[in-house]
Write a structure and sequence with these properties.
A 5-stranded parallel sheet has the order 4-3-2-1-5. By secondary structure, the chain is an alpha/beta fold.
C-alpha cells in the first residue's frame, strides 16, 4: 500500500538546518519507498527553499533529488520574506491556491497525511 504524504517545511535555515534537513530527508525516505510524497514550503520555510536553491548550499542536492516532488512555496509568504525572486529564478512554483497562499486543506482533501517540519 502506498502512502500519500505531504511534508510541509515551516522552518527557516536562519534558525538552523536541522528541521529543514530532517523534513527533506523524510520526504526522500518516502520517495525512495515508492510512496506518493509532495513537499511544500510555507511560513518562514520559504526562506529555506530560496537558500537551498543555491547550488553552493549543502542541502541543494536534497532539493534537486526532490525536484519533481516539491510543489513549491507559499506565494504570500515568499513575498513577505523577500524570497519570491530567488524561488522563481530557481524554477520553483509560487503556490496561490488559498487566496494567494499555499493551501494545506487541499493537501488533506487529496488524502495526504501532513508532516510538519
Amino acid at each position: 500500500m502506498s502512502n500519500k504524504i505531504a511534508v510541509v517545511i515551516y522552518e527557516s535555515t536562519n534558525s538552523g538546518d536541522a528541521r529543514a534537513y530532517r523534513g527533506l530527508k523524510t520526504a526522500i525516505e518516502f520517495q525512495e519507498a515508492g510512496d506518493d510524497v509532495v513537499v511544500v514550503f510555507d511560513g518562514s520555510g520559504v526562506e529555506t527553499l530560496a537558500a537551498i536553491s543555491d547550488p553552493t548550499n549543502p542541502m541543494h542536492p536534497l532539493a534537486e533529488k526532490l525536484r519533481s516532488n516539491i510543489l513549491g512555496a507559499c506565494s504570500y509568504c515568499a513575498k513577505a520574506h523577500k524570497s519570491a525572486a530567488a524561488i522563481q529564478a530557481a524554477g520553483w512554483t509560487l503556490l496561490t491556491d488559498n487566496n494567494g497562499e499555499a493551501s494545506i486543506r487541499n493537501l488533506v482533501q487529496d488524502g495526504r497525511q501532513i508532516l510538519n517540519f
